[in-house]
Amino acid sequence: SRMGRIGALAASLALAISPTLVYSARYGDGTSLLLTTGFGALALWFAYREKRRTGYLYAGSVLAALALLADLRVVGLVLVGAVAWVIERFILGRDLFAVVESADIADKPLPWRELMLCFGGTFVLVVTTLALNPDGLGAWADMISSWFSHMSPVVNGQPWTYPLLALPLYEPFLLLFGLIGGATLLVTYKKLGEARGLTLYVWLAIGLALLAILAGGRGAGDVALACVPLAMLAGWAVERLVASWRESEFLARDGLLATIVLVILIYVAMQVAFYARALYTNAPQSSQFMWFWMLAVALLILLGGFSVAWLGGPASWRVGGVALALI
After folding, report:
1. At what angle are helices 286-311 and 255-281 packed, to 10 degrees?
2. How far apart are CA 177 and CA 2, in angstroms?
3. Nearest-angstrom CA–CA distance, 272 and 293
4. On the CB side of 63, how many CA atoms lie within 13 Å of its CA?
5. The CA-based dihedral angle spanning residues 151, 156, 159, 165, taken in that order and rounded to the nearest 10 degrees
6. Is the pTM of this model over 0.70?
7. Tens digit of pLDDT for each residue in 269-303?
8. pLDDT of 152-164, one tens digit each?
C-alpha cells in the first residue's frame, strides 16, 4: 500500500541486477547477509504495522538477531537509524515508525517479553553455534571496536570520492529515481498518509552514503548499504510515475518526454559501449575522458529534469524540472 506492486517490482529488479550488490556479493564478507536480514527485519516491521499480525514481529526479531551477527557494518546501520529517530522525534516532532494512522495501536501493545525471548534465543544460539562455541560471544563483543577500525584510514584504500563516483557510474537508476523519490517524500510529507514510513529510507540513504565516504577502505560493501534504501525510494518514484502514466492526458503531456529519454538512453548506451571497448583495445585519449564525463553530466541533468516533470507535484518542482531539461 505504500510502494505499490509496480514500485516493489522495480525495486526488486534494481536490487537483483545492481552491479554494486553483485560485485560485493562475490566476496562473501557478510554484507549480503546484513542487507538481507537488516532490511528484511525493517520490512517485516512495516508489514506488522499495516496488517497487525504478530507473526511478522517474531520473524522480524529473528532477522534482527541475525543482522547483528552478519557483518560489522551493522554498527553503522544501527547508528544511522538511531540518529534518524532522534531527529524525527525530538527535532521535527514526528514519529518515524507511525506508518499507520490507527486508533487501535495503543490498544494492542507489543508482546515485548516474547519478542525478547525470540530475539535473545536466536542471537545466543547462532553466536555460540548452538552452544558448541561459547567464545563466540567474546568475538561478537569486539564488533564495535572492529567497526571503528573499519572507519579508520587505511593504506592504498579507495579515495573519499569513490562512493560519489561509483553511484552515478554503476547505479544511475537507483541514484536518479532514489533522489527524486526521497525529495518528493520530504516535500510532500504531510500529504502522504501511510507512505510516510518510507521517509526512514531517506535518512538511511543519506546516513549510509556518508558512512561510505567516511569509511577507511571505502569498499563496495559500504556503497552497497546505501543502494538498498535508494532502491526502495526509486521503486516508490517509479510507482508514482506509472500512476501518472495511467492518467488520460498521458500521451499529450508525457509521451514526448518518454520518447526523448528513450532515444537519449540508447545513444548513451552506445557511447558507453564504445568507451568500454577502448579501455581494452588502446588507451583512451584525454579528450575521450572529458567527452564521457560531459555526456554523463548531461544525461543526469536531462533525466533529472524529465523525471521531475513526470512526477508532477508542486508547480515549483515542475518549473525546476523544465529548467533542468533546458539546461
Report:
1. 160
2. 16
3. 11
4. 19
5. -110
6. yes
7. 666 666 666 665 665 555 556 666 666 666 666 66
8. 887 777 788 888 8
